[in-house]
Amino acid sequence: MNVYSITDIGKRRDTNQDYVFASDRPVGKLASLLIVADGMGGHNAGDLASRCTVETMVRYIENAEEERPIALLGQAIHTANEEVIKKSKTDASLEGMGTTVVAASVCGEYLYVANVGDSRLYLIDGEIEQITRDHSLVEEMIRVGELRREDARSHPDRNVITRAIGVRAPVKIDFFDMKLERGDKILLCSDGLTNMVEDYDILRIVRKSGSLKEAANKLVNEANKNGGRDNISVVLAEF
C-alpha cells in the first residue's frame, strides 16, 4: 500500500489545528494506520487536542495486545478522549477544547474505519463514496428533511459538530469495515477540504493525478483556490 499525507494552514487561519498520522508499515498489531484529527477551541487549545488525540492513539496501539482492528481503533479513541478531557481540566485556557478524528487501518484485503465528528473517509474506486457519516448539526438536519444537502455548504451552522473527542466520556464512535480491491484509493480529510471542494471535483483531481503526492497537493491547492477558509488535511492511500 502506498501512502501520502499533507496538512496546510489554509488562507484564513493563524494556526493549523489539524494533525495527521500516516504509516503504511505496522503500528503495533495493525498492519497500517491512518489518522486525521481536526481540533477546535481557543488559541493553542485546538492544536493541542488534535495532537494529543493522535499521539495518544498511536502510543496506545503500539503497546496494545488487542489484535482485532475495530476493537483496537475503538480502544485507542476512548483512551485519547479521556486524555484530552484530563488535559482540558489542567488549564482554564484549555476548557472546551476538542477534536474530530477519523482513523483507518488496512489489514489484508480489508479496510477498518472509526470516526467521531465531521472529518471524513472516502473510498475512490472509479467513483467516490463517503464511507463515514458526519456527526454535525447540518447532517442531522439533512437526515430529518429540514435541509437540502446542496444547501449544507452555505448554512451558517455548518461548522457545528454533534460529537467530538474531549467533550464527555464515554465517546460514541462509528465503525465501518469493507473489502478492498486492487487499485482502490482511500482518502481521509478534514472539513477544510470538503467545505471548499465538491466530491465530484475531488474524484476528478484524484483520477487525473499521476501519483498520490500530486493528487494530495492538487486537492490542497484547489481548497485554497476556492477560499481556504480552514486548515486542510489530506491522507491518501492506494491499496
What this model shows, in words?
There is one protein chain. This protein has 239 residues and is α+β, with helices and mostly antiparallel strands. Helix content is 33%, strand content 27%. The strands form 2 sheets. The chain has a 5-stranded antiparallel beta sheet with strand order 1-10-9-6-7. Strands 2-3-4-5-8 form a 5-stranded antiparallel beta sheet. It has helices at residues 45-63, 69-88, 137-143, 149-152, 191-194, 199-208, 212-225, and strands spanning 2-8, 18-23, 33-40, 98-107, 110-116, 120-124, 128-130, 174-179, 185-189, 232-238. The chain has a single domain, classed as PPM-type phosphatase domain (Phosphatase 2c, domain 1). The termini are close together. The chain contains 7 helices and 10 strands.
Q: Might you state the CATH topology name? A: Phosphatase 2c, domain 1
Give the C-alpha Rg.
17 Å
The stretches of 5 or more residues where confidence is low (pLDDT under 50) are: none
The CATH class is: Alpha Beta
Q: Please indicate the percent range of residues in DSSP E strands (runs of 2 or more).
A: 25-35%
What profile does the largest beta sheet have? 5 strands, antiparallel
* Biggest sheet: strand arrangement: 1-10-9-6-7
Percentage of residues assigned to helices: 25-40%
Number of strands: 10
The domain count comes to 1
The rough form would be described as globular
Q: Helix- and strand-based class?
A: alpha+beta
Q: Please report the distance between the alpha carbons of the first and last residues.
A: 5 Å
The CATH architecture name reads 4-Layer Sandwich
Number of helices: 7
Note the run of SSEs as H and E. Answer: EEEHHEEEEHHEEHHHE
The average pLDDT is: 94
